[in-house]
Specification:
Length: 290
């Protein structure tokens, strides 16, 4: 490079290219027959945490979704090679791609971090949603470069009995931490937790949070939340506040090439009816935006 870009410009452009490459490789160019408007849409398996893996896969298939971000309760990161082989066979039977894995913790323990990446690679995931400690980034820089698996930092809302903000509470906080690190370290924003932040701090606009992260958006947990009752609600519910259309527009603006996980934490014994409403609302929104 005879005239190198400034470091920040280089990282941003590199992340954009990586995201675009993933999108092309997964066939994400939208078509009239694509009800999800070119987005890769699936489930966060935590939605079905009261069911075993096959129960989760069955319900995901019934919703017409083909991608899943698996949480460790369904696919443990310490699964033996034999167990993992059986898991991958089951995923193939249900036609579900394990696009992401998490939410996982990372620390400065490089060997422990490496084991998580090794497992994600064997599972076939391209993204790891994460809650890393601030001292983990030197290790993560090396691992994302080695495995070409993106780390997507997941923000949480109020913690400490709902009175304190999580350490990764917003896009601004995350961007400040990752801006000088490898372009494969970014976010998996969670609109539900962003909405919950209003319980203890200034409200956050989910679409603007997407714009702040720009090319470092690798995943998105898309959910709505009723702060008065402190419970998730389906998209479009009168008690909710999420503007799905504005979030999707923002994702297009930043040339998002990652995955969207529909996540629903209410009605845990039978979330499918409400999740079905979310899927249908997403598809209706895409149709209106076309």
């Amino acid at each position: 490079m005879t005239a190198p870009l400034a470091r920040r410009e280089f990282l941003t452009s590199s992340a954009a290219l990586l995201g675009a490459a993933w999108g092309v490789s997964r066939g994400l160019a939208g078509t009239a027959a694509d009800p999800f408007g070119g987005f890769t849409v699936g489930m966060q398996s935590y939605t079905f945490r009261k069911f075993d893996l096959e129960g989760c896969l069955k319900r995901t298939q019934e919703l017409g979704l083909k991608f899943t971000e698996f949480y460790p309760g369904h696919i443990p990161a310490d699964s033996s090679p034999e167990k993992l082989a059986g898991i991958k066979k089951l995923l193939a039977e249900y036609g579900v791609t394990p696009i992401a894995f998490g939410v996982m913790g990372f620390s400065k323990n490089h060997d422990a971090n490496k084991k998580t990446f090794e497992f994600a690679a064997k599972l076939g995931s391209k993204f790891i949603s994460a809650d890393p400690s601030p001292d983990s980034f030197d290790s993560l820089d090396k691992l994302v470069a080695e495995y070409k698996i993106a780390v997507a930092i997941h923000p949480h809302g109020p913690t400490g009995k709902g009175k304190e903000l999580h350490r990764w509470s917003s896009a601004e906080v995350i961007m400040k931490a990752v801006k000088d690190h490898d372009p494969l370290i970014g976010t998996c924003l969670d609109t539900g937790h962003l909405i919950r932040t209003a319980q203890v701090a200034e409200p956050l606009d989910s679409a603007q949070q997407v714009r702040v992260m720009g090319a470092r958006n690798f995943g998105l947990h898309l959910k709505d939340h009723d702060n008065k009752r402190k419970t998730d609600v389906p998209y479009g519910d009168p008690a909710g506040v999420l503007d799905v259309a504005s979030v999707l527009k923002a994702l297009k603006e930043v040339k998002f090439g990652g995955y969207i996980s529909i996540e629903y934490e209410a009605n845990e014994s039978n979330p499918s009816p409400d999740v079905k409403k979310c899927v249908e609302y997403f598809q209706a929104t895409v149709k209106k935006l076309a």
